[in-house]
Amino acid sequence: MESIFHEKQEGSLCAQHCLNNLLQGEYFSPVELSSIAHQLDEEERMRMAEGGVTSEDYRTFLQQPSGNMDDSGFFSIQVISNALKVWGLELILFNSPEYQRLRIDPINERSFICNYKEHWFTVRKLGKQWFNLNSLLTGPELISDTYLALFLAQLQQEGYSIFVVKGDLPDCEADQLLQMIRVQQMQRPKLIGEELAQLKEQRVQKTDLERVLEANDGSGMLDEDEEDLQRALALSRQEIDMEDEEADLRRAIQLSMQGSSRSISQDTPQTSGIHLTSEELRKRREAYFEKRQQQQQQQQQQQQDPLGQLSHPCERPTTSSEALGSDPGDVMSEEDMLQAAVTMSLETVRNNFKTEGKN
């Protein structure tokens, strides 16, 4: 099909498309056909002038528009016939009594030119197959041999004038190629108007869909698509949460190994999955040293006033050193307290790893 020359409709230049599709090439242009039309007009004017330039018929002829062409691009059968004479071709009316008496089977012809209401198109045999080369179609239409006679009869019934093209057509690539192979057409071409209407309808549907999506803030998706999107978002959030937990754990281990001052009071429950930020660890460290300083002051007061210790035995607080198993009477240096805090932090991380391993 790609080798077949097929001009599509432009304006009202169907006569040009008809001739070029028949000859299988860009043989004629509107300018060349207009030149033929003007030549025919001049020949008609000269014949009318033979009856006298002052006659009523002559003046009426001059006032009438050309019968061979118009501004829209239409050309008459006389223009088409004269254009084909250049190639040694002539037209015979298919349904004329003279041709019908010959009783020639249409399948034995080579091409036809059809006209209805100022529209021209070609039906031609290429290789061993017939094709409708109507310029109003989106492409060549394959016509079977058995359907050809019925197709022409249908055109006649609809009011078409059909002309048989007599003579040798110029050689073309499509004719040579289709002499060796036969083509099959799975889908018949549509009229150009139908294709444009479908494209317009598709654009309208697309525009309506965009308006619906815009009115719904882009949420006008189908329910199934929306469910798939929600599931994808949920899985994504789970992955992000897992990554955040792993990152928190790595940061806690890194801070502990760097020797940052942290203290975790024995009163605080050790639960797997609790992650402390650097700011929280700093506050607990300050609380630890502040509490330790208060304990040292209380111990000094107790040594100076042993009776106060006996008078209020329940007011003596339980120190962190006791929680670590140290002697209550010992006074820890700041370096010892820092080391103890780091030891407790590392012990907490180890307990967390053990707990997660069991789970």
Task: Give your account of this protein's structure.
The protein is of the alpha+beta class and 359 residues long. It has 13 helices and six strands. It has helices spanning 14-23, 30-49, 56-63, 77-85, 97-102, 145-157, 173-178, 192-215, 223-257, 278-304, 306-311, 320-323, 334-358, and strands spanning 90-93, 111-116, 119-126, 129-132, 141-143, 161-166. Strands 1-6-2-3-4-5 form a six-stranded antiparallel β-sheet, with helices on both faces. The chain is elongated, with a radius of gyration of 50 Å. The model is unreliable at 259-274 and 307-331 (pLDDT under 50). The active site is at 14 (nucleophile), 14, 119, 119 (proton acceptor), 134. Residues 294-304 have a biased composition (Low complexity). It comes from Canis lupus familiaris (Dog).
- Are there runs of 5+ residues with pLDDT below 50, and where? 259-274, 307-331
The strand order across the widest sheet is: 1-6-2-3-4-5
Order of helices and strands: HHHHEHEEEEHEHHHHHHH
Individual helix count: 13
Q: What is the first-to-last residue Cα distance?
A: 71 Å
Shape: elongated
Describe what is shown at a glance:
By secondary structure, the protein is α+β, with helices and mostly antiparallel strands. The protein contains 13 helices and six strands.
Record keyword descriptors for this entry:
359 residues, alpha+beta, 6-stranded antiparallel beta sheet, 13 helices, 9% strand
